[in-house]
């Protein structure tokens, strides 16, 4: 495994908005996945070992990930699953118009 420096993140803090940090993290993950998809499966383990030296820009900072995980603006795992599996309440435009529009032609 690569020797990645681990910092004390108890007081991790960032001045950037959460939505900007999420976009930057997703971009870094996309770059990392594009880099790793080019590597043959046989060499994947060695490519991961030298990832820190070859493409350090593709790794998102650990302190920023800690800020995202501690953020109250983002859903936790349980809350995300509840929202994901909950049915959508879709309201058509016709249902919110008052009085209800009358149809001139009868339905066929």
Structure description:
It is a single chain. Residues 6-10 have low confidence and may be disordered. The protein is built from six helices and no strands. It is mostly helical and 108 residues long. It is elongated and about 70 Å long. The protein has one domain. The protein starts with 17 loop residues before the first helix and ends in a 12-residue tail after the last helix.
Q: Which geometry do the CA atoms define?
A: elongated
* DSSP, total strands: 0
Span between termini: 68 Å
- Provide the low-confidence segments as ranges: 6-10
Rounded to the nearest angstrom, the radius of gyration is 24 Å
Sketch the topology as an H/E string, one letter per element. HHHHHH
- Strand-residue fraction? under 5%
The biggest beta sheet is recorded as:
none
DSSP helix fraction: 40-55%
- Which structural class should the secondary elements be placed in? mainly alpha
Count every helix, treating DSSP H or I runs of 4 or more residues as helices. 6
Averaged pLDDT? 79
Q: What count of domains describes the coordinates?
A: 1
List the helices and strands and how they pair.
Layout: H1 18-37, H2 44-49, H3 51-54, H4 62-70, H5 77-85, H6 93-96
């Amino acid at each position: 495994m690569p020797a990645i420096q681990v910092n004390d993140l108890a007081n991790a803090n960032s001045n950037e908005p959460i939505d900007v940090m999420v976009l930057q993290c997703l971009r870094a993950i996309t770059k990392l996945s594009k880099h790793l998809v080019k590597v043959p499966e046989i060499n994947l383990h060695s490519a991961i070992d030298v990832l820190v030296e070859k493409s350090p820009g593709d790794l998102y900072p650990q302190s920023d990930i800690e800020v995202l995980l501690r953020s109250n603006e983002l859903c936790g795992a349980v809350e995300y699953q509840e929202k994901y599996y909950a049915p959508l309440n879709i309201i058509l435009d016709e249902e919110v118009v008052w009085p209800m529009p009358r149809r001139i032609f009868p339905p066929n």
